[in-house]
Amino acid sequence: MHHTLATLCLFVLSGTGLAVPAAAQSLHEDLATLVETPAVTGYEQALAEKIRERARAAGYALEQDHLGTLYVTLGSGAPHRLVVAPVDEPGYIVSHITDNGYLRVQRLPQSGVHPLFEQLHAAQPVVIHTREGRWVSGVVAGLSTHLQGGRRTPPRVAHPDEVYVDIGAASAEDVRRAGVGLLDPIALERQLLVMGFGKVTAPYLGDRFGAAALLELLRRVDRTRLRGTLTVAFLAQQWTNSRGLDRLTQRIRADELVYVGRLRPRGAGTAAMPEPGAGVLLAMERSEAAPGGFAGEMVALAETHKIPLRPVPAAPLPRASYTGGPELPARMVQLSIPLAWPVTPAEMLDFADLGQLSGLLEAYASGEIRNRGAAGDAASPGNRLPGRPTAAPQMPELLRNLVEAYGVSGHEGPVRERIADLLPPWAKPETDDAGNLILRIGDAPAGSRVPRIAFVAHMDEIGFVVESVAPDGRLVVRSRGGGILQFFAGHALLVHTVQGPRAAVLELPAGWEEPEFDWPRGPASVLRVDVGARTPEQVAELGIRVGDSLTVPKKYRPLFGTRANGRSFDDRVGSAALIAAAWALGPNLTGREVLLAWVTEEEVGLRGAFALATRLAREGRAPDYVFAVDTFVSSDSPLEEKRFGYGEIGKGFVVRAVDNSNIVRRELVDRVLALAQRHGIPAQFGVTGGGNDGAAFLRSGTVDIPLGWPLRYSHSPGEVIDVRDAEALARMITVLAREW
Question: Same topology for domains 5-89+203-363 and 395-461+567-739, yes or no?
Fold first, then answer.
């Protein structure tokens, strides 16, 4: 579905027409490798090994100090120049494991990160690095949209006290069996995504671009032309007030220091920083008419090599609180590049800036400058499967195929194609005018007393749609379906165009860096999306049009045991259960009249279901019973009140006895549960929020009995299910089709 930058650099950048030079690929690959390897401050070991490998391939054996900083020294004599870049990022470590299997956390660094740090982690996929070197998947718990209407004081998830990490465990013993223990680092799962016109985005990109530039420096520097001694260092623990640099400057007494990394804004904050694409930045602690001393020399060097270099106000490097260090030489400069949405999951840079920074460092080291490339875009992979399966797929495979197809309300085509491809070979589904996919099974004769039964699941998912293009090239988008804004703003999105997906960033609301910031309430105001373009014409060059849909990047992620994470389990689990039931029922369902329907636009008002219900009623074929198959939004979460919406994941399918759109008579609930018990199918029932597609059939006299499965953290990237519940749901649909 997505491509790392190492893959994308092989393609042509359609927005600029520039081909990517083969020689530039190493810098692309370095950036992708470094960004996609988490390195919580103090726990940089996995990333350090990646840096060692790439340096070794360039012919260097790096040394390491006791804090984890890697370095290599070239040449000899004076002056001794030290070029450094940080490699660590803010994140969490496991500080406690609860009896019911959740991880409690402590943030690292323990202070000094912006106020929205916790909120931008809520409901997001994460990975935990174990002592054995394995990466274990998990999600940060988030509130479920449908359960918040009646709550007085829901948690804001604005402090580590309210952060819980779910790896799919049901007990502390499960956590131990998964290999997770106290002090294991936790970081956002990430991927470097290519946007338009050379922009790239990934979590904490600002903590890696400097290291990528240093690897490029080692690869490019001509050792025979070095002036004096050059030490290149990859700093550990910089987020702990420059602890890594403090140690290094005690060991290496350099005459000059070039620090390459994110700048800390001074004065007006990040608003005073240039946008990506402005070139290299030079930190200035004081507002001077022109940089002098070492900074002035760097400006002159940039001018000589025609590299754009812009002085900007920035705070000095933080000092280690316990030692007062680092001890910096008088000749010291900070270099950086512009970063949008700093220290967020949507951090963004322009690859051209990184190439110019690499060129400046090479010129500083050896007086030689080389051309750098630009990031490229890739063609979109096809959505269709190679052919229908010849045997019934297992539930995890069904879920993976459906979750990894994209289909915002009104844009369900790729999901419909995927469902049709996964049905058994005998199935001949039809698509109606509303885009619903319909499969009829059974041979009940006309006029028979056999009840007409319909099972309905929806294909669409929440997301956004492009409403207009602003003069500055940003997209103005409107949400399709309900979701909590903080789960999506400040994170990457994909724009789904006819030419394939385009990476983008959903911008944070104004004032997001202020200590008293609070998320907007009520209907979403105008939301803006950055795709890397700066004019409407550039947006058009990327193939983006008004009406295109947007979603978060997503994939199916197995968790511990039988649990899994994936955006759009609502309602891909229901869709998968209907596919599994079709395989189980077969083409010869004697004496029954069953309809399986995968419908459109549920998230924006049950539109597909209403169209289907209206047509069936008009034809005199309204079902007697409809089993709407959709999520049971569950409060089985450390953040929710258990009085409402409680259904344990892993304990079976759920009869949605009461929701906002329907109330099922108790005798019908009991009848379903008795049938489940007779067939040994684990079952639950309960009360939850939201509506279901079956409500669209009520006006025709149809009885609505909604079925579901328990879902944690609904309408978020962190949705969690137990696959056994989906399997139980599919079995129950099969029994109901045969026996109800």
Answer: yes
H/E element holding 296?
helix 293-304
Q: Which CATH class is domain 395-461+567-739?
A: alpha beta
Q: Tell me which CATH code domain 5-89+203-363 carries.
A: 3.40.630.10
Cα–Cα distance measured from residue 701 to residue 525, given in angstroms and rounded to the nearest whole number: 39
Strands of the 720-722 sheet, one edge to the other: 557-558, 563-565, 720-722
Block residue for tokens 């910031």: 517
Q: What is the pTM of this model?
A: 0.88
Nearest residue to 485 via CA among 518, 533, 450, 442: 518
Q: Are 396 and 723 in contact (CB under 8 A)?
A: yes
Least confident of 18-22, 219-223, 735-739: 18-22
Tell me which CATH code domain 463-514+523-551 carries.
Answer: 2.40.30.40
Q: pLDDT tens-digit profile of 549-603?
A: 999 999 999 999 999 999 999 999 999 999 999 999 999 898 899 999 999 999 9
CA 232/CA 473 separation, integer angstroms? 39
Length of the chain, in residues: 740
Which CATH number, 3.40.50.620, 3.90.550.10, 3.40.50.10610, 2.40.30.40, labels domain 91-188? 2.40.30.40
- Residues with Cβ within 8 Å of 538's Cβ and at least 6 positions away in sequence, in order, are 15, 196, 197, 473, 532
Model confidence pLDDT, tens digit, residues 490-524:
999 999 999 999 999 999 998 888 888 888 876 55
- Tokens matching residue 167: 């790896």
- Best CA proximity match to 103, nearest among 182, 188, 189: 182
Residue 387 DSSP SS3: coil
